[in-house]
Design brief:
The protein is an alpha+beta fold and 283 residues long. Among the domains are: 74 residues, 434 Repressor (Amino-terminal Domain) (Orthogonal Bundle), CATH 1.10.260; 86 residues. The chain has a five-stranded antiparallel sheet with strand order 3-2-5-8-9, with no helix packed on it. A four-stranded antiparallel sheet has the order 4-1-6-7, with no helix packed on it. α1 packs across α3 and α4 runs antiparallel to α5.
């Protein structure tokens, strides 16, 4: 057994948790938890999943998660030093021999312009049209364009005034009509039903004990999963039932709806117990 597995096994046994209970709490298969405690890293899945299993198992047992992951990597034989990233060397840029120089580009453009000029001159597109001898161009007289001008009305004409714009009718207010009272919101007086199942746990102030581990489900929903130390207390409530898995009942006093539960605290130290509490009792 390796140091990693020994620390996990001692922490689990100190809290009175079995492999199956730890598997239910962490959702890790029992064979993987047994492989971690046995130091059989070859039976674990990939490295990413294995580190997640170690971290979750350590959090359940109250162990330092990062320290346990580092111990796992050390036993697996992986390097713990950070990986250094070295930038790749960039080769110097060389000028390609295919890039034309300025003079080659200039003379190429000049030759293209000369070729275009020769083609246009040969096709006659650059020669202005010639008129026949003795012919005189006929001038076309411009026709003036007339625009309508506004005429002033005769002085004796009477312009009809525009009809006045009717004003909107004003609402009439009866001074004798009663004024309606403002509406007052009615408060919601519906009562909220209280939880019928209330469980209280008290851990005795014992200097020789570290406390007791509690796993609690209220109405099938996980409500608590951690260690209650000496002098601490916790209360859970539910509508139907509350399931409790207590690691050491010798230091725990349990109350159901304010009444003591029989068998608590226990007479033998280190004895775990599972029970389900409803409104009628715990068993």
């Amino acid at each position: 057994m390796t140091q990693l597995g020994e620390r996990f096994r001692e922490a689990r046994e100190a809290r009175g948790i079995s492999i199956s209970e730890a598997s239910t709490a962490t959702r890790i298969l029992p064979r993987y938890l047994q492989a971690i405690e046995a130091g059989d890293v070859a039976s674990l899945p990939g490295d990413v999943y294995a580190r997640g299993f170690v971290r979750n198992y350590a959090q359940l047992l109250g162990l330092p998660a990062e320290e346990m992951v580092a111990l796992y990597r050390k036993e697996r034989g992986e390097p713990t030093a950070p990986i250094k990233i070295v930038p790749a060397a960039v080769p110097p840029r060389t000028r390609s021999c295919l890039i034309p120089s300025f003079f080659v580009t200039f003379f190429t453009v000049l030759l293209l312009l000369a070729a275009v000029y020769v083609v246009l001159n040969w096709t006659g597109m650059l020669t202005p049209p010639q008129t026949a001898e003795g012919s005189t161009p006929t001038a076309i007289p411009a026709t003036p364009t007339t625009f309508p001008t506004p005429t002033d009305p005769p002085p004796d004409a009477i312009q009809s005034p525009l009809p006045p714009t009717p004003s909107p009718p004003q609402p009439t207010i009866d001074p004798l009509a009663p004024t309606p009272a403002p509406e007052i919101p009615t408060p919601d007086l519906s009562a909220t039903p209280s939880a019928p199942v209330v469980v209280q746990a008290f851990v005795a102030n014992d200097q020789t004990s570290q406390g007791s581990w509690f796993t609690v489900n209220a109405d099938g929903v996980p409500a608590f999963n951690q260690l209650l130390r000496s002098g601490q207390s916790q209360t859970w409530s539910g509508q139907q039932e509350i399931f409790l898995n207590i690691g050491d009942i010798s230091v725990v006093q349990l109350l159901l709806n304010g009444q003591n539960v029989a068998g608590f605290p226990g007479a033998v130290k280190g004895v775990p117990r599972r029970l389900t509490c409803t409104a009628s009792g715990c068993n």
